[in-house]
Amino acid sequence: MFHPQHAHSQQLVAPNQQTPQEQMRWKVKTPLHSPQSTPGTTPKQPCPRPQYYAEADSIGCVEVLATVCSIVLMVVTLPISLFLCFKVVQEYERAVIFRLGRLRSGGARGPGVFFVLPCIDNYCKVDLRTVSFDVPPQEVLTRDSVTVSVDAVVYYRIRDPLNAVVQVANYSHSTRLLAATTLRNVLGTRNLSELLTEREAISHSMQVTLDEATDPWGVQVERVEIKDVSLPDSLQRSMAAEAEAAREARAKVIAAEGEMKSSRALKEASDIMCESPAALQLRYLQTLSSIAGEKNSTIVFPLPIELIGPLMNFTSSLGVARTAGAVPRPGPPPVVPSTTTSISSPPGDPGQPPPSE
Fold first, then answer.
1. 194-232 pLDDT, tens per residue?
2. How far is CA 219 from CA 12, 28, 191, 201, in A?
3. What does 269-329 look like in DSSP terms, one character per residue?
4. Which are the contacts of 86, defined by CB distance < 8 A and separation ≥ 6?
5. How many C-alpha atoms does 226 have within 13 Å on its Cβ side?
6. CA distances to 55, 204, 267 from 201, in Å
7. In angstroms, rounded to a whole number, what is the distance separating the alpha carbons of residues 48 and 10?
8. Given pLDDT bands bounded at 50, 70 and 90, which one contains residue 31?
9. Cβ neighbours of residue 129 under 8 Å, at least 6 residues apart?
């Protein structure tokens, strides 16, 4: 507890007149309600603060007695006490030491070997490696009143071991709760379309917000990624129906454009064939070749118009001559012996006519 008589025993020095170690200790142990200096003015002298905010410059009698007893105990129990006094932290760890409940000056120890006094010193290890955790799925109501379930993953690391131990009780649990709350707050200001298409912007916004909130705790949020966005089944069906209708509409438009282009190509081809009658005959032969390649049992042979043209002309001229009466009546045609082949029908088939002789 803070006693008024201790206020005069502590010599308060402005931050700009302190040694580097004292400035570090001053920065770490400044309370939240300490007066702040405004730009353009001289910094104010800090007011006396309770003993649990900073390690006093003068140590009381109890502290001195406890320290002496600890040193004597260490000397008496040599060399066994060496195993309790020397501690080792890894390259990725730091140790924050407290002596009789007060934070020791000099900052965090490590990596390597450091010394503690038995019975009066205790320390806390802090891991500086990047840690990742999954944010549980959060039911979020977007700005356009759509309920979605979103989960994310957060990567963070300890930037300042002293603040991570002194300023917050459990930095890992606090960061997890803050990440879940920030995820709901950020997604509540976005539409569903923005949530589905602007994941990188939303992740960056969450990372900046979390980093600003966890900076007093000595935690640095390195990256935030949205893993999955789960939509309700009814909304998925409606979106699928909408997408299917849009695809069908585009397919019909594309088919209509194809028919128009094919009709134009056929018109140009017909114009070219009209200029060259032999091209039509070649087209007939090509069609027959393609039909014969498919091994069909029935082949339809188109009769060219050019073969029927002379017969039609002769018939029309004959009709004109009969009308005028100038054409003599033709005689009977000469009898030409013809050889016929008889095809006998199977016995018992009443549908076939008798063979001709």
1. 888 888 999 999 999 999 999 999 999 999 999 888 888
2. 30, 14, 30, 22
3. HHHHHHH-HHHHHHHHHHHHHHHHHTT-S----PPPHHHHHHHHHHHHHHHHHHHHT-SPP
4. 113, 114, 115
5. 24
6. 45, 5, 54
7. 8
8. very low
9. 92, 157
> Any residues with CB less than 8 A from the CB of 99 and at least 6 apart, and which?
117, 120, 121
Answer yes or no: are the C-beta atoms of 150 and 187 closer than 8 Å.
Answer: yes
Number of residues that this document lists for the chain: 357
For 167, list phi and psi in degrees, rounded to 5: -85, -20
Bond before 111 cis per omega within 30 degrees: yes
Q: How far apart are CA 79 and CA 87, in angstroms?
A: 15
**pLDDT of 337 strictly over 50:** no
pTM: 0.55
Which backbone phi and psi does 114 adopt, to 5 degrees?
Answer: -140, 165
Percent of the chain exceeding pLDDT 70 equals 69
- Residue 303 — pLDDT band, cuts 50, 70, 90? low
